[in-house]
Design goal:
This protein is an alpha/beta fold and 342 residues long. 17% of the residues lie in helices and 38% in strands.
Length: 342
């Protein structure tokens, strides 16, 4: 009788663990979700500002450097630095805009939030030689970071979460996007559009976005490597009309549509990616030519795609929880009954 009691107690424990795991899966998200918080090392709370070296903004760099929140001289060895600044866009404009600038500058350790629709936490227009480092560009009503017609820009170690679109780069060349966390945006995570060439997208976490994680459109010669792109609502990585790119050594799991998708894209190298797919691992349409696809690990997800859709009716989840709870109750009753017979 004691052995039976131990057996039933073990069954209760196993069932409880299963119930806990199911609850964690459905109510606490996946293991790649990133926690983030607004920067607390703030020295200056500023109104939205525009630095335009042709004089069309609030400041030129020569004028901005006279403020306490800006330092440097704009050279490669002594760049202008703006750091420890918090700006709330008030849902009316971009938080910080840098325009028509060729000097060296760094935007660092700033919190830029609540921009207007079609505006951004940080907006760069016709600039080069800039670095965006360790900023929090989250909770904007438009873009987290918007980069338009730039070159030699480094975007690294930023939190870009809960915006309409994470990072949007248009006609951007010879720039790098590295080690950023880009998640839970209502559209794409990283979007390079139209003649974004010779760029690097490396070591980013691009998860839980409502469209594709990383999307290239009409962009060429870009390396997409060592990224994590999981649980995005469309594809992990998507190329449209984009040629001569390398997609390598990325972890791409549980995206709603395809792991990697290519449309009208030629001469791309796709190799050594680890993909757990829902609909298809690597998909290319009939207009694609001369893509090299080899040495990728493709594993079919055991989770049906409907379970990855947040709009899926909760009836199944409720049923699983109810069955798990019911099993615990039944086993407890059996154990109690056997003990009472003793």
């Amino acid at each position: 009788m004691k052995n039976k009691t131990k057996f039933y107690l073990i069954l209760i424990l196993i069932t409880a663990i299963g119930f806990f795991s199911i609850s964690r899966c459905f109510f606490h998200g996946n293991k790649y979700s990133e926690e983030y918080s607004l920067n607390t090392s703030i020295y200056w709370n500023l109104a939205p500002l525009v630095i335009d070296d042709l004089g069309g903004g609030d400041y030129t760099w020569a004028e901005a450097v006279l403020e306490d929140w800006c330092a440097g001289s704009g050279t490669e060895n002594d760049p202008y630095i703006i750091e420890n600044v918090a700006i709330n866009g008030g849902n009316s404009t971009s938080c910080m805009e840098i325009k028509q600038s060729s000097v060296h500058f760094i935007i660092r350790n700033c919190t830029l939030t609540n921009s207007a629709n079609n505006d951004a936490g940080i907006y760069l227009y016709k600039v080069e030689n800039g670095k965006l480092v360790d900023n929090n560009c989250s909770l904007n009503n438009g873009f987290g970071i918007l980069v338009y017609m730039v070159s030699f820009i480094n975007i690294s170690n930023n939190n870009v979460n809960n915006n309409i679109l994470g990072m949007y780069l248009y006609k951007c060349n010879q720039s790098s996007i590295t080690e950023n966390i880009i998640s839970e945006n209502q559209n794409k995570g990283i979007y390079l559009k139209e003649n974004c060439n010779y760029n690097e997208i490396l070591h980013n976490s691009v998860n839980d976005n409502q469209d594709s994680g990383i999307y290239l459109s009409l962009s060429y010669h870009t390396d997409i490597m060592h990224n994590i792109a999981n649980n995005n609502k469309w594809d992990g990585i998507h190329l449209f009309g984009s040629d001569h790119n390398t997609i390598s050594e990325n972890i791409i799991e549980y995206n709603k549509h395809y792991g990697i998708s290519l449309l009208r894209s030629d001469n791309n190298l796709i190799t050594e990616n680890e993909i757990i797919y829902v609909l298809s691992c690597i998909e290319q349409d009939e207009e694609c030519q001369d893509n090299t696809i080899n040495n990728n690990s493709c594993t079919r997800s055991i989770i049906d795609e409907d379970f990855l859709d947040e709009d899926f009716p909760p009836l199944i989840i409720i049923l699983i929880i109810a069955l798990s709870f019911g099993a615990v109750v039944i086993i407890a009753v059996i154990v109690y009954w056997h003990r009472k017979r003793k």
